[in-house]
Specification:
By secondary structure, the chain is an alpha/beta fold. It has a single domain, classed as P-loop containing nucleotide triphosphate hydrolases (Rossmann fold), CATH 3.40.50. Helix content is 41%, strand content 15%. The chain is built from 9 helices and 7 strands; from the N terminus they run E-E-H-E-H-H-H-H-E-H-E-H-E-E-H-H. The strands form 3 sheets. The protein has a 3-stranded parallel sheet with strand order 3-4-5. It has a two-stranded antiparallel sheet with strand order 1-2. Helix 2 packs across helix 3, helix 2 runs parallel beside helix 5 and helix 5 runs parallel beside helix 6. The chain is globular, with a radius of gyration of 18 Å. The protein starts with 20 loop residues before the first strand and ends in a 5-residue tail after the last helix. The relative contact order is 0.11. The mean pLDDT is 89.
Length: 204
C-alpha cells in the first residue's frame, strides 16, 4: 500500500515492477504527478497515528496545507468527523489533544483526517488489528457506509472480516496474487488450490 501511495519513493534502492492503473493512468509512470496522486489516494494505517495536536487540528491539517479558508476548514472538519462517526463523541472537546482518545476513536479520527481532503480511493491497512471487538465493529460499520462514496482497498488477515466488509477479494501468497473474484465466489467456490487450502485452514 505504501508503494501505491508512492511513500516508498524516498527509500534508496526501492524497485517497483508491474502496473497499477487509476482512471487509465499507470501511477508508476515517471510522468505521474506524485503530489496530486497522494491527494487522490487516502490511507489509514494498521495502528492509529494521530498527530500530537488537537482533534480539530488533526482533521484540519491537510486542508490548511492546501491553503483553504478558515470557514471552509471548520465546515469540512465537522463533516469529516460526522462521516467518520466520531462527531457526537468529540464535538465538545475539539481543542483537546487527540492523544487522549481511545484506540478506536483515534483510528476513526485518522479516517476523518483522510476524508477531509476528499480522496477518491482509500487504502486501509489492517485497520482493526490493534482494536477490541467493539471498536472493530464500529470501524467495519464505517467502512460499509463509506464504500457508497469511495473506492476502498482493505488489507486484512482476518477472513471473517474480509467476508463481512468486502465485495471483491484477492488472495495473495508470497507477494503474488493467486486469485481474485467476488467475495462470495472466492470464499464459497475458490478456483485455485492455494486459495482453498488457506480458506479451509490447511495452512496460515
Amino acid at each position: 500500500m505504501l508503494t501505491i501511495k508512492h511513500m516508498r519513493d524516498i527509500i534508496p534502492g526501492t524497485c517497483i515492477e508491474g502496473q497499477a492503473i487509476l482512471d487509465g493512468i499507470d501511477i508508476y509512470d515517471k510522468r505521474t504527478d506524485v503530489v496530486l496522486l497522494r491527494q487522490r489516494i487516502g490511507m489509514v494505517f494498521q495502528r492509529p497515528n494521530p498527530f500530537p495536536k488537537s482533534i480539530f487540528e488533526n482533521v484540519a491539517y491537510g486542508l490548511k496545507v492546501q491553503g483553504k479558508r478558515k470557514k471552509y476548514v471548520a465546515q469540512v472538519v465537522e463533516q469529516s468527523l460526522r462521516n467518520a462517526a466520531l462527531w457526537d463523541e468529540v464535538k465538545d472537546r475539539l481543542h483537546t489533544s487527540a492523544l487522549g482518545l481511545s484506540g478506536g476513536q483515534q483510528q476513526r479520527l485518522c479516517i476523518a483526517r483522510a476524508l477531509a481532503v476528499k480522496p477518491e480511493v482509500f487504502l486501509v491497512d489492517e485497520p482493526c488489528s490493534a482494536l477490541d471487538p467493539i471498536a472493530t465493529l464500529k470501524i467495519e460499520e464505517l467502512i460499509t457506509t463509506l464504500v457508497k462514496e469511495y473506492t476502498i482497498v482493505i488489507v486484512t488477515h482476518n477472513m471473517q472480516q474480509a467476508g463481512r466488509v468486502s465485495h471483491f477479494t484477492g488472495f495473495f501468497l508470497n507477494g503474488s496474487l493467486v486469485e481474485y473474484a467476488p467475495t462470495v465466489q472466492l470464499f464459497g467456490h475458490p478456483k485455485k488450490k492455494e486459495t482453498e487450502d488457506y480458506i479451509s485452514g490447511r495452512f496460515g
